[in-house]
Design brief:
By secondary structure, the protein is an alpha+beta fold. The chain has helices spanning about 50-60, 105-110, 120-135, 140-185, 190-220, 225-235, 240-245, 250-260, 305-315, 320-330, 345-355, 360-365, 375-385, 390-395, 420-430; strands at about 5-10, 35-40, 80-85, 90-95, 100-105, 120, 260-270, 275-280, 285-290, 375, 400-405, 410-415. The protein has 15 helices and 12 strands. The strands form 4 sheets. It has a 4-stranded mixed β-sheet with strand order 3-7-8-9.
């Protein structure tokens, strides 16, 4: 009625869904084509019928089962990313004043207090999808799409001929019924009433067929003209430049992606850097690829065992830490956060973990311990296999307690940790922790 139409039968009752003793149950929402009655322009309308249908399409697109509406932000695929583990839609979280985006699957964590499913940096996925989108819109690929559109146009022309024949048949039945009714004598009232009913039935059948034909046309895509096809080919050659132009906003890019992509299924292999990406295009085609994401720790790298072996082999050849770092960078090894090359400090840490190099000032620091349960940050990190920056962050936030001891001209943090405290710290490190937007950096080096 808000659009000026009278309708009946929008929510029919399904007997199979009814419950005994509850007559109001079993209702379902029917499609507009299945309504029993729909009479347009029966009341003063606040909005037009086209505006009403546009609102329905927008509401349907905003549903969780659909692709969702584009919500702006710096994430290219906001609302399109689906978790490859549980199948839920991944949300977009921002930090650094909206510049750093992450795709997070936290539906089970927020609803059922379950562990965080998976999380990864949005920029890595966006770059890979951008490359696939630009590749799909290349002139060669676009030429194939235009040819396919021409083939579909030929098929639609055949369907149009079929519809034209059905409409012509319906019009013939109407004219035939009218001629029969018009030829009857007025005295034969019974025959006239029967022929009048036949005429009305033919008119109703023709009206139903014409309404069905209009609904069919409403769902058919428009056919591109020759000028439009030439314009698409010209713009396709400049598409990469237009995509990266300063005048192109993220909202424009999101609109382009939503025209050709239905969803992007993302799956992280464990806590490693390997990510499986499946792009499901609007035409039903799927593209699978793998990419490497930044992770928090060296131990998360799938190549970590091979990296340790390579560092040990280079150390056995007598190379120094800077020389080993240069070799690793030349061979294509990538650090976990992928923000720069390997450094000498990172190589020394790998040598320390394998026992190939002694920790600096270890003898002096052992003399500062006053209890068998006193640990330096380096020793505790080595014993628990936890990065030293993580332990220092815990110390600064009060998760663990320690004291600053000065001896032999050096100041060292000493941590009191017995067996129970060591077990607690291991459990804390093994528990995935979600990023807290209220803190500048996460307490736990969880999965990136």
């Amino acid at each position: 009625m808000y659009a000026g139409a009278y309708s009946y039968g929008r929510r029919p009752t399904d007997p199979r869904r009814q419950k005994a003793g509850r007559p109001g149950t079993g209702r379902r929402v029917a499609a507009p084509g299945d309504w029993a009655v729909l009479l347009k322009d029966r009341f003063p309308a606040y909005i037009t019928w086209e505006h009403y249908e546009a609102n329905l399409r927008q509401l349907e697109a905003n549903m969780a089962q659909a692709t969702g509406v584009s919500r702006g932000g710096t994430a290219l695929l906001s609302g399109l990313v689906v978790c490859g583990r549980c199948g839920q839609r991944m949300t977009t979280q921002y930090r650094s004043n909206g510049h750093a985006a992450r795709y997070v699957c936290n539906r089970a964590a927020s609803s059922y207090a379950a562990p965080l499913c998976q999380s990864l940096v949005a920029a890595t996925v966006d770059e890979a999808v951008t490359a696939l989108v630009l590749q799909a819109l290349e002139p060669a690929a676009l030429e194939v799409s235009l040819r396919a559109a021409e083939d579909l146009a030929a098929e639609r022309a055949a369907v149009q001929r079929h519809w034209a024949q059905r409409l012509e048949r319906a019009r013939y039945e109407v004219k035939r019924a009218f001629r029969q009714y018009d030829a009857v004598e007025p005295e034969n009232r019974l025959v006239a009433r029967t022929l009048e009913r036949h005429w009305e039935a033919a008119l109703a059948a023709e009206a139903d067929l014409r309404a069905e034909y209009e609904r069919f046309l409403a769902h058919q895509p428009a056919v591109l003209s020759g000028e439009e096809q030439a314009e698409i080919r010209r713009l396709a050659a400049d598409l990469p430049a237009l995509w990266h132009a300063p005048t192109t906003t993220m909202a424009d890019r999101q609109a382009v992606v939503r025209q050709i992509l239905d969803r992007v299924v993302v799956g992280v292999e464990g806590h490693s850097e390997t990510v499986t990406l499946e792009c499901r295009w609007a035409g039903g085609h799927s593209t699978r690829t793998t990419l490497a994401r930044p992770v928090a720790r060296l131990e998360q790298l799938s190549t970590y065992p091979a990296l340790l072996e390579r560092v040990a082999a280079l150390h056995a050849d007598g190379r120094t830490a800077p020389a080993i770092a240069d070799t690793l960078n030349a061979e294509g090894w990538v650090p976990p956060k992928r923000r720069g090359p390997f450094s000498a400090a990172t190589v020394r840490g790998l040598l320390y973990r394998q026992g190939l190099k002694r920790w600096p000032n270890e003898r002096a620091r052992r003399t500062m311990t006053a209890s068998p349960h006193d640990w330096t940050l380096e020793a505790l990190a080595r014993h628990l296999d936890i990065p030293k920056p993580t332990l220092y962050a815990w110390l600064r936030k009060g998760v663990i307690t320690g004291r600053l001891v000065t001896g032999e001209g050096k100041s060292v943090w000493m941590i009191q940790a017995d067996d129970a405290e060591l077990a607690r710290l291991r459990t804390l490190h093994a528990t995935p922790r979600m990023w807290n937007p209220g803190s500048p950096d996460p307490v736990e080096d969880g999965p990136m």
